[in-house]
Design brief:
Elements: H1 2-5, H2 20-29, H3 37-51, H4 61-64, H5 66-77, H6 81-88, H7 93-109, H8 128-131, H9 134-164, H10 181-205, E1 215-221, H11 233-253, E2 258-260, H12 275-285, E3 288-296, E4 300-307, E5 313-318, E6 338-341, E7 344-348, H13 358-365, E8 370-374, H14 387-396, E9 399-403, E10 408-412, E11 418-423, E12 430-436, H15 444-448, H16 451-472
Parallel strand pairs: 1-2, 2-3, 7-8, 8-9
Antiparallel strand pairs: 1-12, 3-4, 4-5, 6-7, 9-10, 10-11
Helix pairs in contact: 2-3, 2-9, 3-5, 7-9, 7-16, 9-10, 9-14
């Protein structure tokens, strides 16, 4: 169910019940010594369903074996779980589940190879009407609510199963704790109220009217990286430069004043090798150009340069989160330039940077209201990666404009609305143009960071210390 909830299947309504079969299996079906298999199989299966086989051959072995590794780790960490919960009763079962899940999400989001891939809230990427409170609570807040729903429904099912077996909520001799119906109903009512409050807040935060200032942006998708019969980087650059120049003119003819090219569009420093043609192009179209390029020095460094409409080269941004399991590196990361324009402050990030919450948030704090994202995705992730742009926009209030070579370019406004996109794993040529707005002010999620996630980590630590103190007593 969790796999089907995510893109490209997008049966988003399943995400709220996805944990229920796992919890019933763990708590009511499997014998105690085998109960840890339920979360191991469920979570490992979810990872396999969403990400199994998506990594290219050159990826590190641990990413290609990720579903198996996750399954084993979750199984080992779940050993002894149900008996411990039985001793403590189920009074706080949904809250404990949500805190634990979100704390683990925060911890793994800090791992360079993982980031925020697979966050539960990503299943709702098209339900803009439900996503606005992310500007306050972040994606961690949405995931907390989703897990609460699953655990509360599971608790209700536990109570029903226990009642069928004749239990009234009191443990019998040699038995674990059972769930009284009143406790399950109380939890379901509380979670339902929380969902209603979230939905009401989301409706209240939706934009009203059309008075917000807009900027016309464009994302270029040339349709290929290496043209047939092109045998050298120089020939490749010339072919792509010609194609992207033509697309830039098409976008400018439609009124675009900010135009982003894909990641590593050129294999040389545009500030030296291609300075004259790029400066002349920016002047011709009267637009800001964001040109991604790749340098070998000797390791591969991915950067993006911003060119003003008057032909000036304004600054360079180095990829903040290089994909280590693909052998990427970045010696120029750590600088976060922003640029004041007549349409507001803008900034750039590169591809995998939107897999993490920190880099877009840093630029938003520095005033960036539009983030331009040169990208280079492989086919297997093209139906999923653009989804992350929606949530970075919601967390920062900034519009996000993602340009990819051939597969998943997208334009998202500051409210998380997907204004334009082209998702073609097999590859296609496209020029996306849209008018974007940003959310007024700096959202709390950008100002305070991943505060819900850290709050869950703190609660987990405090709870663990309290249990340790109690066991010693």
């Amino acid at each position: 169910m969790l796999t089907l909830a995510f893109a490209p299947h997008s049966a988003w309504y399943l995400v709220g019940v996805g944990f229920v079969p796992m919890l019933v299996a763990q708590q009511r079906v499997l014998p105690g010594r085998l109960s840890a298999l339920a979360p191991g199989i469920a979570i490992g299966g979810f990872v396999a369903g969403c990400f199994g086989g998506v990594f290219p051959e050159r990826a590190a072995w641990y990413m290609k074996q990720l579903p198996l590794l996750v399954g084993v780790i979750v199984t080992l960490s779940s050993l002894g779980g149900p008996p411990a919960r039985a001793r403590a009763s189920y009074r706080y079962f949904p809250l404990q589940g949500a805190i634990g899940w979100v704390a683990v999400e925060l911890a793994r989001s800090l791992i360079p190879a993982l980031g925020t891939w697979g966050f539960l809230g990503y299943a709702l990427y098209r339900q803009t009407w439900l996503l606005q409170p992310i500007a306050i609570f972040g994606t961690f807040g949405l995931d907390f609510l989703i897990v609460l729903v699953s655990y509360a429904l599971a608790l209700l099912l536990f109570a029903w199963l226990d009642r069928r077996k004749g239990h009234d909520g009191r443990p019998g001799e040699g038995e674990g704790a059972f769930v009284p119906m009143w406790l399950a109903v109380r939890w379901c009512a509380g979670v339902a109220a929380a969902c209603m409050l979230w939905g009401t807040l989301s409706f209240a935060m939706l934009p009203r009217g059309s008075g917000a200032p807009t900027a016309r942006v464009a994302a270029l998708q040339p349709g290929y990286r290496w043209k047939e019969k092109v045998r050298s980087p120089e020939e490749r650059d010339r072919a792509l430069l010609e194609a992207l120049t033509a697309q830039t003119r098409r976008a400018a003819a439609q009124g675009a004043r900010f135009i982003v090219w894909p990641e590593s569009a050129l294999h040389a420093d545009p500030q030296s090798v291609y300075r004259e043609p790029l400066a002349a192009l920016a002047k011709e179209v009267g637009a800001y150009l964001f040109v991604g390029y790749l340098l070998h020095t000797p390791a591969a460094h991915r950067e993006v340069v911003t060119i003003a409409p008057d032909g000036r080269f304004l600054g360079v941004y180095g990829k903040d989160h290089p994909v280590g399991f693909l052998g990427e590196t970045s010696s120029t990361r750590g600088a976060y330039p922003t640029y004041a324009t007549p349409f507001g402050v803008v900034g750039t990030v590169i591809c995998a940077d939107i897999d993490f919450t920190d880099t877009p948030r840093r630029l938003a704090r520095d005033g960036a209201r539009i983030l331009f994202v040169p990208s280079a995705d492989w086919p297997e992730i093209s139906t999923k990666h653009y989804v992350l742009a929606v949530f970075r926009a919601l967390e920062t209030g900034s519009a996000v404009v993602k340009s990819e070579y051939a597969r998943d370019s997208a334009i998202v406004d500051g409210y998380g609305s997907l204004l334009a996109s082209v998702i073609t794993p097999g590859g296609s040529e496209a020029v996306l143009v849209a008018d974007v707005t940003s959310r007024p002010g700096l959202p709390l999620a950008a100002r305070w960071g991943d505060w819900v996630g850290w709050l869950c980590v703190a609660a987990l630590v405090v709870g663990g210390l309290a249990r340790l103190r109690g066991s010693r007593a």
